[in-house]
Amino acid sequence: MKFGVLQFFSWPERRVDLASVYARALQRIEIMDRTGYDAVWLAEHHFSSFSVCPSVHMMGVLAASRTTRLRIGTGVTLAPFYHPLRLAEEVALLDVISGGRVNWGAGRGFARVEFENFGISPDESTSRFHEAVDIVLKAWTEERLTYTGQHYRFEGVEVLPKPAQQPHPPVWMAATSEGAIDWAASRGFSILMDPHAAHRDIGRKRRFYADRLAAAGHMMRGRDLPVARLLAIGETCEKAAGVARRGAQWIVDSYFGAQHRPVGVADPNAPGGDPVRRYLDEVIIHGTADKVLDEIMRLREEIGVDYLLCAPLSHDTFMALTENVLPKL
Fold first, then answer.
1. pTM of this structure
2. What is the per-residue DSSP string for 241-291?
3. CA-to-CA distance for 50 and 97, rounded, in angstroms?
4. CATH code for 2-328?
5. What are the DSSP E strand ranges found in 75-170?
6. Sign of CA dihedral 110, 114, 117, 118
7. Whole-angstrom distance, CA of residue 263 vs CA of residue 88
8. In 107-198, where does DSSP find H-type helix?
9. Distance CA 70, CA 40 (A)
10. CA 96 vs CA 61, 63, 126, 166, 300: distances in Å
11. What is the pLDDT of residues 100-124, one digit of tens each?
């Protein structure tokens, strides 16, 4: 089993200086480099204190400068909000600077506040996302790019630098809906699975992906399919549950708040249930280190998780994961 960390840059209640949020995250990244983690995956968000990291590529340069072996993932680049040539350049530059350690994860985004303020129609999010991915991959692999699409047109442009990894960095698509999973599978892309889905839904979606991948003539074998899970670890189950509950409330209030009404994503605030309880019961892995270890092994057996993308809900959780869970796995 591989382990990565989905690194958020949350600023709850703005109770500390923002610079310390970045400093703590970079300290974690240095620890990841010395221990058993495969990669740090940097989460991009805009216009929200849920995670104040508007540029995963800039943050990736800092991560590269402080590490020697850790892979640097984008979890994810919100592709519709970039000019695709600029996106191809920035990710390739990061790959060169890091010595070929980039994992490129791309997604279309879903927060209305982002689409509204970047001037992108939500109705165009999917077509812009698909077109951006096509252009980036062609820019990396073709000497000169000629492209005609719905949103962009280029003629014989040389996009530099090319990535260090050939033919290009490994690529993942964020895929939550069946439509997104079907599209990724039809193109042979590997997928990233989100931290907000219930465990049982993750298992169902992985089976659907495997079926659609096979139908398109692609192999499942040999793929890393990171599954993001929120984690809370404490000295006792009660303390861990408290961390999980505070984390769930923060997610519901900030990530799915009024400003971030989701586009094409199930809203946990919809009538019919307690969204915080849903996170506690169905989404967050929480408990003592031994209990969390048991739960991870259960997910491995029941739904085939072989790459766990951990999203710790506290620094103590990250340290307990590093010191008390990873060595046993």
1. 0.94
2. HHHHHHHHHHIIIIITSGGG-BSSS--TTSSSS-HHHHIIIII-EEESHHH
3. 29
4. 3.20.20.30
5. 77-78, 102-107, 145-148, 153-157
6. negative
7. 25
8. 112-118, 125-141, 178-187
9. 7
10. 10, 13, 29, 11, 34
11. 999 999 999 989 999 999 999 999 9
